Amino acid sequence: MRVTINTIKGMKSKGEKIAMVTAYDYSTAKIVDQVGIPLILVGDSLGMVILGYETTIPVTMDDMLHHTKAVVRGTKRAMVIGDMPFMTYQISIEDALRNAARFIQEGGAQAVKLEGGVTVAERVRRVVECGIPVMGHIGLTPQSVHQLGGFRVQGKTSEAATSLLEDATVLEEAGAFGIVLETVPAPLAALISQRVSIPTIGIGAGVGCDGQVQVINDILGSFTDFVPKHAKQYARLSDIIQSALAEYYDEVRAGRFPTDQHSFSMDESILASLE
Ligand code: KIV
Fold this sequence. Notes:
The protein is 43% helix and 13% strand. The chain contains 12 helices and 8 strands. The protein has helices spanning 5-14, 26-35, 46-49, 61-73, 93-105, 121-129, 145-148, 158-174, 186-195, 216-219, 237-254, 268-274; strands at 18-22, 39-42, 79-83, 111-113, 134-139, 178-182, 200-203, 211-214. It has an 8-stranded parallel barrel with strand order 1-2-3-4-5-6-7-8, surrounded by 7 helices. The radius of gyration is 22 Å and the shape is elongated. It starts with a helix and ends with a helix. The structure holds 3-methyl-2-oxobutanoic acid. The site of 3-methyl-2-oxobutanoic acid has 12 residues, from strand 6.
């Protein structure tokens, strides 16, 4: 049985912290699921850490569905949340419904996430009314990076903080089951977390959130372009991969790989008959 939105909401009521991490492929999702992490986000961050774009903006529905299907195949228990890409929900409510439905129907996800607060509240309401759980995402919303003037901390002025509080409240009223708070001062994120009854999942938003989300490549150290301030590296996979590949490269060139252990034998008499 997969984790449901009731499980997640119940965790907030019980004061249990909620862990969420991104995944983009079958093998990684399987490990995340085995660890027991309840929420997996197929984030549009895949545009940056998997596809090598500078922002998440070029990511398409086809990209997202391709990776969502792989993550769903790798999981049995975690709730898989598909991240709606740029301009797949902003233009019209119809677009939002159609594309959210694709994540559930074609991708096999159990929920979707979309960026924005007051401006997308009506879309959230309609998608939820159609039976699709929605997670909101406010603060630093990377799809608006050009409008925000870069990847910077949000909600630092009294006006900006007030509007983030309003965004969170409106998302809750619209039926969102949770809200990602990205790159928001920790005290503000803690206040928002107290004001709404649905779980807040922070990234660069301090320990006062109800849960935390991280991009898996950041915390495992496999994305080497930069390390965001909010990311703790629990491993340095890039170093491990680099040294393993250097060893493989050396062994192939020296003829030390493959050995008998990695090769297949055959009946000597058959071989002799060929010679
Ligand atoms: O795309 C993503 O990975 C995200 C998280 C950073 C929340 O939106």
